[in-house]
Amino acid sequence: MSIPFATPEASYRLQPTLYAERLTLRPLTADDAPLLAACAGDARVARGTRSIPHPFPVGTAEAFIADACAEQRDEDVWAIDGSVSGSASFLGVISLKLLDRGQSQIGYWVAPDFWHGGIASAAVRALLEANPHRNATVFAEVFQDNPHSAQILTNAGFEYIGDAEAFSVARDQAVPTWTYLRKMG
Fold first, then answer.
1. To 10 degrees, the CA torsion angle through 5, 111, 182, 184?
2. pTM of this prediction?
3. What angle is formed at CA 182 by the lines to CA 153 and CA 9, rounded to 5 degrees?
4. Mind listing the domains of the chain with CATH numbers?
5. pLDDT for 62-103, tens place per residue?
6. Could you give the CA distance from residue 49 to residue 28 in angstroms, rounded to a whole number?
């Protein structure tokens, strides 16, 4: 069961908690900061993203959470919470960055201790099923050295649309990417 946004225009103000069989996607809270810092501080996680620095500076998790909870934001970020199935209360994050014309970009990462357990797949499916931004199209990109993440996207109905590059802060360089889209509804 999900709690829908009142209107697409209000999507930057209201962020629902989304429920799936094995996990809950919930807004981040200040209590998530220690685990977020520990997980995002892992070089394997940071190298798989555009924006996570490595080493992970003190205070970065708290600043990230404050930005994610701000009333005026262009990205909704959820904690992937596995406590409903007896797992940890923080497994990673998943986000939707609001673009324009009914479009968003999805991003996600899972803590290495939970890799290859279907967590990312379940989170992506739950977010797409809820479609909280009421998107017509959702975009995604993955680094080409992460074929597992590309498989998660294709299994969730995304179609490959081309190659590009994105700068990775942790790698301090541009990294080749694969770009995907999924038409909603």
1. -20
2. 0.91
3. 120
4. 8-133 (3.40.630.30)
5. 999 999 999 999 999 999 999 999 999 999 999 999 999 999
6. 19
